[in-house]
Specification:
five-stranded antiparallel β-sheet
């Protein structure tokens, strides 16, 4: 649209009355809008003015002026389809800026200033104040930002930076803020990705620790059950040893003075089995006291008890074979 045609369109739109009147009630406001739009179009002829209804996020619908067109930011990249809506409270409120994606050039999903819908929010808009800010300076700011960080995905291109890159020490305060905001955005994305990986690793570790905890609990339950079983066996063996000693006393023998000898080979074997059983019982008792006093470790205690238990089982089996179950039963009944 030629400049003269743009001027005519803007004047006509601003002077239009109901039902097509724009949502700019103040004459001074309309004069500022006209001045800023003409300045923008003079600097960027590819942008042309128009009017349409605009619906805010709260559902409010207003008639606004907007300018749209292709904004070229670099000789290495394609132009950017841009639409700038003038808020009903412009210039005291910032304009609403949108990048229009297409099927061949969608928007970068992680762009620091443009979301996937095309809505654009740069530090210049976030710090907008009148009269310091206007449309022309806004577009100049967008050109600098998009030159170094193009919002569209360009097929078969790595989007190289322009050759007129300025050293950070020579840029303006606003451009420095823009670059800093962009770098912070990408740093935050990288940090979020790293944190996500760490959270995933910690979640897997937590699951593994829970499995190990369940296994450990099962082992502790089994060990406690085995400990109680061994303790019960020791008590039974102790009782059996007492029965043997009672039997010796009933038969009028003094083991310390006379010793105990059998009349025949079978009796000798019985005495040897009973003596061995008693000795093993005493040894187990002393080992249990050693375990309680932490003189020996639990693993070593269990190992020795199993060895002694097998040996004691052999002696008791021999007693049952030589004298039968009634012999041991009679020993138990004497207690």
């Amino acid at each position: 649209m030629a400049l003269s045609s743009s001027i005519l369109f803007i004047d006509t739109a601003l002077s239009c009355t109901s039902p097509y009147a724009l949502s700019y009630p103040q004459p001074k406001q309309k004069w500022l809008i006209r001045k800023h739009l003409l300045s923008l179009i003079q600097d960027h002829p590819t942008l042309s003015p128009s009017t349409d209804k605009f619906t805010h996020n709260d559902g409010t619908t207003v008639n606004l002026l907007y300018t749209s067109g292709d904004l070229r930011v670099s000789t290495h990249t394609p132009p950017i389809p841009l639409t700038i809506w003038l808020h009903e409270n412009y210039p005291y409120m910032p304009p609403l800026v949108f990048v229009s994606p297409n099927s061949t050039s969608p928007i970068h999903k992680d762009h620091p200033f443009v979301d996937l819908s095309g809505s654009t929010s740069v530090p210049y808009l976030q710090t907008w104040t009148f009269p310091r800010c206007n449309l022309t300076k806004l577009v100049h700011n967008l050109v600098r930002i998009f030159r170094h960080d193009h919002p569209l995905i360009i097929p078969n291109s790595s989007s190289p930076a322009d050759s007129d890159f300025t050293h950070p020490s020579l840029v303006s305060k606003m451009e420095a803020i823009d670059r800093l905001a962009g770098m912070l955005h990408y740093d935050i994305l990288a940090l979020k990705a790293k944190i996500g990986e760490e959270v995933e690793e910690l979640t897997e570790l937590k699951g593994e620790l829970r499995k190990r905890d369940a296994i450990t609990r099962c082992l502790m339950i089994d060990l406690e059950r085995e400990r109680l079983g061994l303790k019960d066996r020791v008590m039974k063996l102790r009782d059996e040893g007492d029965l043997v000693m009672n039997w010796v006393k009933v038969n009028g023998l003094n083991l310390e003075e006379e010793g105990l000898e059998g009349e025949d080979e079978e009796s000798k074997m019985v005495i040897e089995c009973v003596a061995a059983d008693r000795a093993i019982e005493d040894l187990m008792y002393e080992m249990e006291k050693g375990l309680e006093g932490e003189v020996m470790g639990f693993d070593e205690y269990i190992k020795q008890v199993r060895i002694l238990g097998r040996e004691q089982f052999i002696h008791r089996a021999m007693l049952l074979k030589l004298r039968g179950p009634h012999f041991l039963y009679s020993l138990h009944s004497c207690i």
